[in-house]
Amino acid sequence: MRRNRYTLVELVTVTAILLVVLAVGTARLSVELLDGGPYQKAEQLRRIAALCRRQAAATGKTCAVEFDPARRRLFFGKEQVTYPQELRILRNGEELQEPGVVLRFFPDGGAAETALAFERDGETATLRISPLTGSIVIDETE
């Protein structure tokens, strides 16, 4: 009766091959997660908008999320969403190009009515802000 035994060289070789395959797969996946598609960017902005809304209610002062096209980011204080070159951001149907306020929340819980759409390769995720309640909803379409 013959027993199958593997040499140390064979085991190390197979392990090295598996590690290379795992590293390539992980790198590709991490690039996709870090880059983020339209829905992921809309979700990141939703979190920042919720922080801004809470601060407006807590301080009794109007609070805003701003747009900086030079650095390709939407920000509130230290919180920010950066976006890749190929991702377009539209506010109420028009592409954002000028710096300034894109979302505004008031102390009474309301907000300036806004729809921000993140668009890339036929995918769109739209962040909608209700003017009465300041509620934030994301719609996704392909």
Description:
The protein is α+β, with helices and mostly antiparallel strands and 142 residues long. It has a five-stranded antiparallel β-sheet, with helices on one face. Strands 3-2-1-6 form a four-stranded antiparallel β-sheet. It has one domain: 3-Layer(bab) Sandwich (minor pseudopilin epsh fold).
Within CATH, the superfamily carries the name minor pseudopilin epsh domain
Strands, total number: 9
Which range best describes the helical content: under 10%, 10-25%, 25-40%, 40-55%, 55-70% or over 70%?
25-40%
Shape category: elongated
> What is the CATH C-level name?
Alpha Beta
- Which strand order does the major sheet show? 5-4-7-8-9
CATH architecture label name: 3-Layer(bab) Sandwich
SSE ordering: HHEEEEEEEEE
Termini gap = 61 Å
Measured on Cα atoms, how large is the radius of gyration?
Answer: 23 Å
- What proportion strand? 25-35%
Unreliable stretches (pLDDT < 50, length at least 5) are none
Largest sheet: 5 strands, antiparallel
Count of individual helical segments: 2
Q: Which topology does CATH recognise? A: minor pseudopilin epsh fold
Whole-number average pLDDT?
85
Jot down its keywords:
minor pseudopilin epsh fold; 9 strands; 2 helices; 32% strand; 142 residues; four-stranded antiparallel beta sheet; five-stranded antiparallel beta sheet; 35% helix
Topology:
Blueprint: H1 8-35, H2 38-59, E1 63-68, E2 73-76, E3 79-82, E4 88-91, E5 94-95, E6 100-105, E7 114-120, E8 123-129, E9 136-141
